[in-house]
Amino acid sequence: MERWSRISLRSKITGVTVLMLTLGLLVSGIGTMAMLRQYVVQQVDSQLQIDAQSASNSYSAAALGQGTTAVVSSDYYVALYDEHGSLEDHTWRDVPRSELPILTAPLDLQTVMELDGKTMTLVDSAHDTEFLAVAVPLVISPQGTLGTLVMAVSLRPTENTMATYLTIFLGFGLGVVLVGALLTRLLVTTTFAPLREVERTAAAIADGDFSQRLGGATPNTEVGRLNRSLNTMLSRIDRLFKDRARTIDQMRRFVGDASHELRTPLVSVRGYAELYRMGALQAPEEIALAMERIEKEAIRMGGLVEDLLELARLDETKPLALAPVDLMPLARDAALDAMASSPGRTITVVTPIPAEIEDSTERPAIDLAHSTGEVPSAAAPGSKPDEPNQPAGGSVSFAGATLARLRTRKPRKADVTPPAPEQTPVTEPGTVQAVVMAEENKIRQIITNLMGNALRFSPTDSPVELEVAVDRRNQRASIAVIDHGEGIPPQIREKIFQRFWRADTSRARETGGSGLGLAIVASIVASHNGTVQVVDTPGGGATFRVWFPLACSPSAPQRVAPVITS
Ligand code: ADP
Predict the structure, then answer these.
(1) Contact partners, residue 175, CB within 8 Å, separation at least 6
(2) Please, which of 131, 177, 369, 490 could form a disulfide with 152 given CB 3.0 to 4.6 Å?
(3) What pLDDT, in 10s, does the model give residues 189-223?
(4) Contact 536 CB / ligand 1 (< 6 Å)
């Protein structure tokens, strides 16, 4: 069995075909021979019967003087016996005795009568020739004495015909088997040629070359279908390997960057401690300065560790505690927080589509994703997009989160309801209902990070806008942080979302961010099936806009059913 399984498929198929062909030919050849021989012998037999009868009649007539002896074909051996079985006369006188048929028993008249003309099989004394023989009674004297006529015919011509037939048959049979084997081998070889290609490619893949793909075979053949499935599988494996390599690479870089980031503040803390121990810090002001530096570095490290933890948690992809969240109040809270921390700033919450709630069917939805936040001028009568303190897109109608103490900004002409002094940014007319399915804390985190960057990367007196919008057509809502600072060059917009990536600008250096803020934003946005985009603020600055599917949209993240444990 083991030896059988070691034989190649090609050899097996060829071998089995040849075997079947040979068996078939043998069976049909032997069968045909047996039938044919029987038929020919039967023919000879019946002819012998007829000829023996007519010879007996003509010999009897001649003996009675009623005619001449008939001439019998020399193919026949004819012998005449008297009534007691003694040989009287026979033909084939010039044939040696050993080649004549020998009677097995003496043929007296009684035995001949009992035989009743049945054919006997006789052999010669050398036992190499068979004869068919019949014995018939006949008259051997003019007195009417009866004797026996034995007529025999050799079966040698029949055997010779059979042997010739066998030779011809074997010759043809051998030819058929050889041609069959050759054709089978050829067919199997050409059919399996693509399989050998598969074999070669598989070997190359086994050696680690995952870029190899199978081709060549016609798609609707078995091998073609196999190739297609294998190629799909290979692409998937290749992608998985690449993903894994990328993840490992990212992880390695991440760990390296994180250690590097943590080492810098640690080195300076240790430096100050050493200075102090060595007595280099004497004056109280020097000590105070060192302490302040240590504190700052500790705060920086703390922030970094917080960010790292946050990212690690996000990477865990734990199910989110989803609930419908209105972006508007979050924007207002963020504005309040930012104003509290940066008292010199004008921070406003704006909505580009004022009548979103009441009139959403009549007003065409504005696809903010492709418009860099610009709102058609019809929706912003009188607004001047170039006005430096204008929010992105010259937003109109509503400026919600404006604290009284920041009322230094001029009321914009486009405001439908100019904010009243001491007004708190809660229920404003014209607010949009941007309800998304999200974990509220995470959304707050996004806004905090974006606001933090906007405040850090723009001049301290420039305004910042928080814009909330709803795009009904695409069933999504957005929150944007719009600053009027240095902006982000297009070539680095992709990079800023990478972990630890920081622009090497003087501001980035002096503010000492961890480079993780936007990575956290990207991670949270992805976990909420959202998207984030960075565009230029008209007039200069950066606009970060985050889109989430509306809570009613099918693409909104789904709440995971709580697991109840008893
Ligand atoms: P960091 O902690 O350094 O702020 P982030 O991931 O939040 O890290 O930001 C990465 C980089 O993106 C920053 O170093 C900065 O160069 C750039 N960036 C982010 N937000 C702004 C913005 N509002 N204006 C200009 N540049 C920005």
Answers:
(1) none
(2) 131
(3) 888 787 788 888 888 888 888 788 877 667 787 77
(4) no
Ligand 1 mean position, distance from CA 516 (Å): 9
d(CA 141, CA 382): 157
Q: Is the CB of 538 under 6 A from ligand 1?
A: no
Q: Which domain holds residue 300?
A: 207-316
Report phi then psi at 92, rounded to 5. 50, 45
List pLDDT tens digits, range 337-349. Answer: 998 888 889 999 9
DSSP code at position 399: B
CA of 496 to the centre of ligand 1 (A): 6
Q: How far lies 416's CA from each of 350, 411, 412, 479, in Å?
A: 12, 10, 9, 21
Does residue 328 share a domain with residue 287? no
What pTM was computed for the model? Answer: 0.52
Q: What residue type is 227 in one-letter code?
A: N
21-42 CB burial, b ≥16 within 10 A, e <16: bbeebeeebeeeeeeebeebbe
Nearest CA to ligand 1 atom 19: 453
Distance CA 455, CA 434 (A): 24
Say whether both 401 and 461 belong to one domain. Answer: yes
Q: Is the CB of 488 under 6 A from ligand 1?
A: yes
In a domain? residue 383: no
